[in-house]
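Deliverable D2.4 — example input (structure tokens):
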């Protein structure tokens, strides 16, 4: 008596592992099917966005009505699933094999394009031992259809408003805005002069040069660096104030920030592309 009971116990444990494996592999196959079906969401959304008459014309050309289309879609999901699992080595443990797998209760594009795949089958041991019988199994998986990214179509009035919003160029620490990206004030022309000549030097706006608040905290050497339109002299060429980053904004934004128009290009409407 002990030997048959031990054999039966071992057999049931092995069946449990087979049962778990079938469920796992079935779920993977279902996920592949539902992912493939989700790609039809784009076509579905295009048809559903049409008027009723146009949609009926397309459906009529396809030779199906809406009811037949739903049944056909569910049947197609079942066909894809059976094709996925028909060559699995465990297919003999399902009553009826691949044909015994049902997809009844599945739905296509319900609740704003969701997909639901419901699979039911009977797990039946190969030995057909009456003490074990068969186990009904139901598995489900759902996914949202891929409808693509809807692009916002701008009206002519919106485009005209955007065109009327003139773009200007502003340096990071600048107090003026420029209508041209090629404005000489935006381009730093750094040159080196002797420190003794700084007092007599003037920029192109006629201003004197004062020491930079950042790099001139240390003693200045024999020469310094200046720019044509800046009003500071710099002890080192690597000073951060000699590096300029330019960004764009609308003319309205620049005026709201209190920026003044550049003396060179501020009066000229229109700008070059950066």
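Example output (designed residues):
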């Amino acid at each position: 008596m002990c030997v048959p009971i031990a054999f039966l116990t071992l057999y049931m444990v092995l069946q449990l592992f087979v049962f778990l494996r079938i469920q796992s592999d079935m779920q993977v196959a279902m996920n592949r099917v539902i992912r493939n079906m989700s790609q039809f969401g784009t076509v579905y959304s295009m048809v559903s966005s049409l008027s009723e008459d146009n949609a009926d014309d397309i459906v009529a050309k396809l030779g199906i009505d809406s009811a037949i289309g739903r049944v056909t879609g569910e049947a197609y999901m079942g066909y894809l699933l059976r094709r996925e699992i028909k060559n699995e080595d465990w297919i003999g443990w399902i009553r009826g094999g691949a044909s015994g797998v049902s997809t009844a209760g599945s739905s296509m594009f319900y609740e704003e394009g969701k997909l639901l795949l419901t699979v039911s089958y009977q797990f039946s041991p190969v030995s057909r031992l009456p003490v074990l019988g068969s186990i009904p199994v139901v598995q489900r998986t759902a996914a949202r259809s891929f409808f693509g990214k809807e692009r916002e179509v701008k009206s002519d009035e919106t485009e005209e408003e955007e065109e009327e919003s003139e773009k200007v160029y502003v340096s990071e620490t600048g107090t003026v805005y420029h209508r041209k990206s090629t404005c000489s004030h935006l381009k730093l022309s750094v040159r080196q002069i002797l420190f003794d000549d700084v007092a007599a030097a003037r920029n192109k706006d006629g201003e004197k040069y004062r020491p930079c608040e950042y790099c001139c905290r240390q003693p200045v050497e024999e020469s310094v660096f200046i720019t044509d339109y800046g009003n500071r002299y710099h002890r080192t060429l690597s000073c951060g104030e000699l590096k300029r980053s330019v960004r764009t904004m609308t003319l309205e934004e620049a005026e709201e920030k209190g920026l003044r128009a550049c003396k060179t290009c501020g009066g000229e409407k229109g700008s070059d592309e950066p």
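The longest helix spans residues 2-38.
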